[in-house]
Amino acid sequence: MTDPWTWHGGGLEAAKRHFGGSDWIDLSTGINPHPWPHATAMAFDWQHLPDARDLAQLESAAASCFGVDPRHVCAVPGTEIGLRLVGNLIGGPA
What we know:
single chain, mainly alpha, 2 domains, 0% strand
């Protein structure tokens, strides 16, 4: 699939640029415009999914931490899909 608007979640800033308007609400899974009240004290964002640029920055930081090339790092949404994909990549069960 090559249409950027057929996948689930995130990309809200890109959608605003493409379709216009500023009063969007992202209804993706895990998005809550009324977050847990203590979330503001934490160093991460509970209200938005990362855009492609954010993922690239995360993967670059992880690559630097682990001493590998950023092309060998892939951020995934949780652990199950990541483990299944690794199993496919290395030929073992996941």
